[in-house]
Amino acid sequence: MNCREAVDHLYEYLDQELTPELEREVRAHLSHCAPCMKAADFEQAFLRFLEARCRNGAAPAELRRKILDQIFDA
């Protein structure tokens, strides 16, 4: 697995939505690739941040607006 493939599967990996084989491949890549591991650590922290801020089931309106602005400006 290369870096591009690992990053393409990162959110599925973090959400434990991959097949066991693909999960092993991503995990193996992350264990040997410091830049991808750093990206995975950042994304995991980001997901924890969102979870902590959105416990009531809905993101605050300002956060939703900022996220959508970033998605559609990309």
The residue-averaged pLDDT reads 88
Distance between the termini: 26 Å
Assign a percent range to the helix content.
Answer: over 70%
Class per helix and strand makeup? mainly alpha
Count the helices. How many? 5
Please characterize this protein's 3D structure:
The protein is an all-alpha fold and about 70 residues long. The chain has one domain (about 5-74). The protein contains 5 helices and no strands. The radius of gyration is 14 Å and the shape is elongated.
Gist of the model:
The protein is an all-alpha fold and 74 residues long. It is built from 5 helices and no strands.
Protein topology:
Elements: H1 3-8, H2 10-14, H3 20-32, H4 34-53, H5 61-73
Helix pairs in contact: 3-4
Offer a few descriptive terms.
mainly alpha; 74 residues; elongated
